[in-house]
Each structure stands twice: as structure tokens, then as C-alpha cells.
Amino acid sequence: MKYLVRDKIFAIGDDYWIEDEQGRHAFLVDGKAMRLRDTLELKAPDGQVLITLRQKMFSLRDSMTIERDGEALASIRRKRLSLLRNHYRVTLVEGTELDVSGRILDREFTVEYDGELLAHISRQWFHVRETYAVNVVREDADAALLVAVAVCVIRMAERED
Fold it and tell me: What is the predicted pLDDT for the residue at 71?
């Protein structure tokens, strides 16, 4: 399943829809303005909060947390010793680790678990410059989590740049 993200509206406080392949609203990204730290909510079309993304305030390295139902689900940070500048590690609370690598700022990267492709993020499917897709490869994968990971690493890479 591919999810369409319009890239140009990633400012804090802006809300935008992520659409599925059929053009239906799949997720609403709700940017929370007037907060001390970068906070976003990923909502279902009915307004239910699926995932909350928060920038960690006091961290040596830039990192964000992903929460579901008020509980920590994962943390994301750039790998410290990586030959690739754009390599991030997603650590789920139960210990599972996902690797995110590629050209983040170019919107050409992958999310993998133990060498298995979970999602491919790319602009290659679209002719519009400010648009990219999150292609969730595995049917049993948590699409909301993978979309949230893509949004997080892009925000983090843009802050580093």
C-alpha cells in the first residue's frame, strides 16, 4: 500500500492529510504549535489519535519518541558511527530495531527489520516535486508506525541540515 505525502507543508502548527493510493484520506498529521518541543499527532480520518511524535528535549543527540495511547512505542535517533550520513535507528520498546537508511533529504530511503524491507520511501512514483510516497511493502506491517517513522526521520534530517 502506498501513502501519498505532500512535502511542502511540514511546518509546526500545520495540518495535512496523507492519502492512500485511491486518493482517500488515510492519516491526518496534526502539528501542535505553541509547544516547547516539536510535537505531531498522526490521526485516523475520524480524528482518533493513532501515534504521537515528540522531540526529546534533553538529549545529547537529536532524537524523537513515538507514542501510542500515551505509552512509549519507539525512539528514533541517528546512528552515531555510520559511514552513511543518513542512517537512523528505530528502537521499539520491546527491543526490536528497525534500520532507516538512504538519502533522507532526497526522499529516497528504506525502512528494514533484520535485512527485510518493510517500507520504501520515494519520490520516483510522482512528477510533482513536493510529493513522495511511503510504500508499505509487507501487508502485516503497522502502516501508521511506518508513516510516522518516515515523517520523523525527515524532520530530524531537515533539522540537522
Answer: 94
- Rounded distance between C-alpha atoms, residue 135 and residue 132, angstroms: 10
Count of residues in the chain: 161
Q: What was the pLDDT predicted at 102?
A: 92
Average pLDDT of 61-82?
Answer: 86
Distance of CA 89 to the CA centre of its chain: 12
DSSP 37: S
DSSP per position, 64-133? EEEEETTEEEEEEEE-SS-SSSSEEEEEETTS-EEEEEEETTTTEEEEEETTEEEEEEESTT-SSTTEEE
Interval 49-59 mean pLDDT: 80
